[in-house]
Design goal:
homodimer; mainly alpha; Multidrug-efflux Transporter Regulator, Chain: A, Domain 2; two-stranded antiparallel sheet; 6 helices; 2 strands; DNA-binding
DNA sequence: TATTGACCTTATAGTGACTATATAGTTTTA
DNA sequence: TAAAACTATATAGTCACTATAAGGTCAATA
C-alpha cells in the first residue's frame, strides 16, 4: 500500500505520515524502484497507535517512550501506568487553571455593559488596572 | 529608564520586551547615543496592559486589537465586550474538551493494575485498540 | 503521441509566544 | 585596568504539525 492509501485509512495527511517517520515514530518503509514508500499492516497498526495517543494528547516523546515499552514486552508495566497517572494530573492541572481563568474573565466581563464609550469601558479599565482577580 | 529596569518592574525578561516591540505591541522607545533604549512611564503602563492581557490568555493579535480600540476612545465599547465574550466561550470549550479527555484517561487507567507485564498491560491494549472512549 | 491529472518525492518555511544562544559593544564596579 | 554587568542585533529552537515550492512517476484520455 502506498502513502496515500495509508493516509486515507488512518484519516490523516500524507505529510503527517512522513513527519512521524522523520520523528522516528514509524519504522522506515520499503521503497518501490521509483522511490515510493510501501507500507504493510504493521505500519497501519503503528499509525493507529500514534493517532490514539495523540487523541489522548500524549506528546510525541511520550509516544516514543510507550513504543520502547512495547518492544520489551516482558518488563513490568508500572512505568506505563505511571506515565498515564502523570498525564492525568497534567490534564487536571490544565482544567483547574482554565476554570480559574474563566472565573476571572466572567468577573471582568461583569464590569461593563455594552453601552459605553471605549474611554469608560469597564472591561478595558479592569485590564489596565490589573484587577481581574476580584470575585 | 533602561530596558533592564523596565523588565524588572514588569517582572518579565528583557528579550520579551524587545519581542513585544518587534510585534508592534510597544511603541518604539527613544534611544541613547549608544543605542540603548530609554523608556518612560507610558511604556510601563503599556507593558502592564499587555501582561494583564496575557494572564487572561488573550493572543497578541487580540491585544493589538484592544490597543487600537484604546487609541479611539469615543467609539462604543461593544466590540471589546464581544471579544471578551468570545474569549470566554473559547476558554469554556477548552475546559469541556479537557474534561472529556480526563474521563477517557481515567477509564483507560482503570484497565490496568500495576502488576502486569507490558504484554498484558490493559492501558497499552486499550490505546492500541482505540477503545479509550468507553466509560 | 501528447498531455492532463493524480499521485509521489524532497526541501524549506510558517504557526504562537516566547526562550536560548552567539557575538559584540558599553557601562559600572572593584 | 580588568572584570562584571548591562546593552545591542541576529539567528535558531520549542511543539506538532501545515503549507508551499519544485520536481519526478504513472495511468488514462484526446
Amino acid at each position: 500500500m502506498r502513502i496515500g492509501q495509508l493516509a486515507q485509512i488512518a484519516g490523516i495527511d500524507t505529510q503527517t505520515i512522513r513527519f512521524y517517520e522523520k520523528q522516528g515514530l514509524l519504522p522506515l518503509p520499503d521503497r518501490q524502484q521509483n522511490g515510493y514508500r510501501i507500507y504493510n499492516e504493521k505500519h497501519g497498526e503503528r499509525l493507529a497507535f500514534i493517532r490514539h495517543c495523540r487523541i489522548l494528547d500524549l506528546s510525541l516523546t511520550e509516544i516514543r517512550e510507550l513504543q520502547r515499552y512495547q518492544d520489551d514486552p516482558h518488563q513490568p508495566c508500572t512505568a506505563v501506568n505511571a506515565m498515564l497517572d502523570e498525564h492525568i494530573s497534567h490534564v487536571q492541572s490544565q482544567i483547574t487553571a482554565l476554570q480559574t481563568l474563566e472565573k476571572h474573565l466572567i468577573s471582568l466581563r461583569a464590569c461593563c455593559n455594552d453601552d459605553r464609550e471605549i474611554e469608560a469601558c469597564g472591561v478595558l479599565a479592569g485590564i489596565s488596572e490589573g484587577n481581574m482577580y476580584s470575585q
